[in-house]
Amino acid sequence: MEITTPKEFFEKVLPAKFDPSKTVGVDVIIQLNITGTNGGDWIVTIKDQKLGTQQGLHPSPSLTIRMADTDYVDMINGKLGGERAFMTGKLKFKGSMTLALKLKEIGFM
């Protein structure tokens, strides 16, 4: 199934595909700032092997990710690799590179 909007991913797909066993020891607050027509701000929390998602802004996230809605959807659908998005400036983040790579392992990006 192809994702069409970031909102669809955060509200339906991510919770359904979340695998708590891959998040042992992960305690992170991710702020996503998605620009564009289907964009928005989301907070994703992973703590104690539980996932939380909500729209909004967090005052002190562990990691901040900024992307255009179309690029984010392409990345989620496997049409744009995370590394390529970062290297070409389509994905911008603030925070730990190690943490960003861990999120990729657990299927977040």
Give a quick summary of the entry:
This protein has 109 residues and is an alpha+beta fold.
What does this structure look like?
The structure is a single chain. The chain has 109 residues and is of the alpha+beta class. The protein has one domain: 2-Layer Sandwich (Nonspecific Lipid-transfer Protein, Chain A), CATH 3.30.1050. 32% of the residues lie in helices and 29% in strands. The protein has 4 helices and 5 strands, in the order H-E-E-E-E-H-H-E-H. The chain has helices spanning 6-17, 69-76, 82-87, 97-105; strands at residues 28-35, 40-47, 50-55, 63-68, 91-94. It has a 5-stranded mixed β-sheet. It is globular and about 35 Å long. It starts with 5 loop residues before the first helix and ends with a helix. The mean pLDDT is 92.
Could you say what the CATH topology is called?
Answer: Nonspecific Lipid-transfer Protein, Chain A
Straight-line N-to-C gap: 16 Å
Largest sheet, strands/sense/barrel: 5 strands, mixed
> What is the tally of helical segments?
4
CATH class descriptor: Alpha Beta
* CATH architecture assignment name: 2-Layer Sandwich
Query: What does the radius of gyration come to?
Result: 13 Å
Protein traits:
alpha+beta; 109 residues; globular; five-stranded mixed β-sheet; 5 strands; 29% strand; Nonspecific Lipid-transfer Protein, Chain A
Describe the secondary-structure layout.
Blueprint: H1 6-17, E1 28-35, E2 40-47, E3 50-55, E4 63-68, H2 69-76, H3 82-87, E5 91-94, H4 97-105
Parallel strand pairs: 1-4
Antiparallel strand pairs: 1-2, 2-3, 4-5
